[in-house]
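To fix ideas, we give here one paired sequence and structure record:
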Amino acid sequence: MTYATQANLESRYGAEEVLQLADRDGDGVADAGVIAQALADADAEIDGYIGSRYQLPLAEVPPIINVYACDIARYRLYASAATEEVRNRYQDATKFLNLVAQGKVMIGPSSNGGAPIEATGAEMQSGGRIFGRESI
């Protein structure tokens, strides 16, 4: 599942900016492949953070994840020419996603009903002490 679309990018930042960033062949049309790659990179980065807490793919995309997917994709489209504002928005997104990964922030509904993934693994339990001061 993709967290954002080209239409989301154009709605948020304007079609002109998206065109300037994604028209790599100079034909006056944003290259769909370039945009798709930036969006896929954003999805992978987000999944890397939230995958430890939420079952993927998410059943619904929370609005905040859509916002941050757009910010991350925009940063990727700018590459090394990112402005301070674009860089700050990217850093804000990664800070937020890091808080999600730490379990300090919930992002809303997920494919398992909104609950974080429960930790699974071995659990050990002691049967009590065999030897102690009272048993001597």
